[in-house]
Amino acid sequence: MRRTPTLIHLVIVDEDRSTFAVEGPMIDDTAWNDAVCDAQQNGRKVRCFSTKADRAEAVRYQESLGLVLVESSSIVRRTIS
Q: φ, ψ for residue 27 (rounded to 5)?
């Protein structure tokens, strides 16, 4: 039986600036995770997590924590090989 891919959103948080971005929807977040890991290795305080929530719900939740929404790809940029 073939699995149906699940669409997710990826939330990227910049803890130094108290900002976040929501990327997606997407099926594979590998390139984004790699970009976050690269940023962390270069000393940035960033983290990410995936969610099955829709974009609006993800935004509302992060804003309720006091974070400010910024433009997509403004915290880190994924590299496509």
A: -105, -35
Count of residues making up the chain: 81
Q: Which residues of the chain carry a pLDDT beneath 50?
A: none
Burial of 21 (0-12, 13-18, 19+ CB in 10 A): buried
Q: What is the pTM of this model?
A: 0.91
Report d(CA 27, CA 9) in Å as an integer: 9
Tokens 């270069």 correspond to 42
Q: Supply 43's token pair.
A: 């000393």
Write out the two tokens for 44: 């940035």
Q: Strand pairing of 19-26 and 68-69? A: parallel
